[in-house]
Specification:
By secondary structure, this protein is mainly alpha-helical. The chain has a domain of 54 residues. It has 2 helices and no strands. It is rod-shaped and about 70 Å long. It starts with 8 loop residues before the first helix and ends with a helix.
């Protein structure tokens, strides 16, 4: 008999929700900061450096968001599989 999971659906939901909250926060901040950088009206080396650094940071944030999306998807899938296994064990066990 397969061992029962020790993580209940509510725990999965809580962790998934936390990941989704972080995703929303990063998305919001990424947009806000992009607007701030785009709104800089002065010129010069410092502004050029700011734009360059922001471009790299924005790319990194995009990668983090993609990773979060994958993690959220994997957590949702794991929850479905484990709940299905537990239900199957309950029905057949």
């Amino acid at each position: 008999m397969a061992p029962k999971t020790t993580i209940d659906p509510a725990t999965f939901d809580r962790v998934i929700g936390q990941h989704e909250d972080v995703h929303v926060y990063i998305t919001t901040e990424r947009s806000r900061i992009a607007d701030e950088v785009a709104g800089v009206t002065s010129t010069g080396n410092m502004v050029e450096s700011l734009v360059t650094v922001h471009g790299g940071w924005d790319t990194d944030m995009g990668d983090i968001l993609k990773s979060l999306e994958r993690m959220i998807g994997l957590l949702k899938h794991a929850k479905e599989v484990l709940v299905g296994q537990d239900e199957g064990a309950t029905v057949s066990g």
